[in-house]
Amino acid sequence: MSPSTRIRPANSVAERHDVHLQRLSRRSLLRAAAAAVPAAGVASLGSALLPVSPVRAQQAAPAAPDITTSDLGGLVLLQGAGCNVVAMPGRDGALMIDGGLAANAAALLGAVYGATGNDRIHTLINTHWHAEQTGANVAVGRAGGVIFAHEKTRMYLANATYSAAGRREPLPEAARPKETTRGDGTLEFAGSRIDYGYLPQAHTDGDLYVHFPQANVLHAGGVVSAERWPLLDYRNGAWFGGRVRALEWLAELADADTRVVPAHGRPITGSDIARHRDIYLELFETMIGYMNMGFGPEDVVERNPLAPFEAEFGDPSAFLDGAYRSMLIAYVPD
């Protein structure tokens, strides 16, 4: 990383974990929820490689993505490349948060250059390792840009991995993060302070948020979902308690007017984050009650405690199934 971009780790992550782990400690929540049990009761890879004619190849070529840009007060939000991307102009190149899908990388980078006035990416931050966030890594890394992420994101990108989306092959060496963190810290870019923080076990097990205090913008990646129920990658370290804990942290970090950028969908506000925290915390306590009653995931889906929010976020069946399975994995009997 060049001298113009400095990263300073913070020492507060362990203390922060202790405080919030106490809030969600297993025994305290099980004791609290035991009294509420009656209320809870009411309530294809490997396809053959065949020659393709030039005509068929032209017909099969994907259409160029429709990438839109929005001003965030010194930052630019780009949508349409596979995930929400935030870019910031810099003297030696642009800063970019997440990189969309690989198929859209060229179009996205062109849009970033047009929006920032830069002709290269100086720093790319991956909020986590999913394909929608890391599609530009190859192009940025091979062009000499700095790729920054949590250490666990680097580990996932260096190995073949299975997720809810299927098997993912490792990225080339040049496309993997070279600068990593294990906790919270500060990055200085183009004269601005940028804070980042680790949100363990919230969406994957390598999620970062990126906070721009001067612009009052918070990029929360896959930990936040604006218009649909979120993916909880419990096969790779995430669990529902981690998501609740992450929303508690983000609600403390953001004020009511903070513009919060999720991985997908429209930006929301700090007030929305506080509301989401309350929804998920109530669901967490309800699920503890279900566990005490011996329910399985299919019972939780049938009860559908999220029915009041279907009109806003859609059918919650897949989310409820994954969230409850993640809790069954996390809570191993003594």
Describe the model.
The structure is a single chain. This protein is of the alpha+beta class. It has a domain at 67-275: Ribonuclease Z/Hydroxyacylglutathione hydrolase-like (Metallo-beta-lactamase, Chain A, 4-Layer Sandwich), CATH 3.60.15. 37% of the residues lie in helices and 21% in strands. The protein has helices spanning 13-23, 26-34, 37-42, 54-60, 105-116, 131-134, 137-142, 151-157, 240-253, 270-292, 297-303, 310-313, 317-330; strands spanning 6-9, 68-71, 76-79, 85-88, 94-97, 121-125, 146-150, 161-163, 166-168, 179-181, 185-189, 192-199, 207-212, 217-221, 259-262, 268-269. A hairpin with a 5-residue loop joins β4 and β5 (94-97). α9 (240-253) runs antiparallel to α10 (270-292). The model is unreliable at 25-57 (pLDDT under 50).
Q: Descriptors for this entry?
A:
alpha+beta, seven-stranded mixed sheet, globular, 37% helix, Metallo-beta-lactamase, Chain A, 334 residues
β-strand number: 16
Low-confidence stretches are 25-57
CATH superfamily of the domain at 67-275: Ribonuclease Z/Hydroxyacylglutathione hydrolase-like
CATH architecture of the domain at 67-275: 4-Layer Sandwich
- In terms of DSSP E residues, the strand content is 15-25%
Helical percentage: 25-40%
Q: What is the structural class?
A: alpha+beta
Please state the oligomeric state of the protein chains shown: single chain
Q: Quick one: CATH class of the domain at 67-275?
A: Alpha Beta
The averaged pLDDT comes out at 87
Give helix and strand order, one letter per element, not per position. EHHHHEEEEHEHHEHEEEEEEEHEEHHHH
Rg (CA only): 21 Å
Give the end-to-end Cα distance, rounded to a whole number of Å: 46 Å
Strand arrangement in the largest pleated sheet: 1-11-12-13-14-15-16
Described by the principal axes of the CA atoms, the overall outline is globular
CATH topology of the domain at 67-275: Metallo-beta-lactamase, Chain A
The tally of helices reads: 13
Most strands sheet: 7 strands, mixed
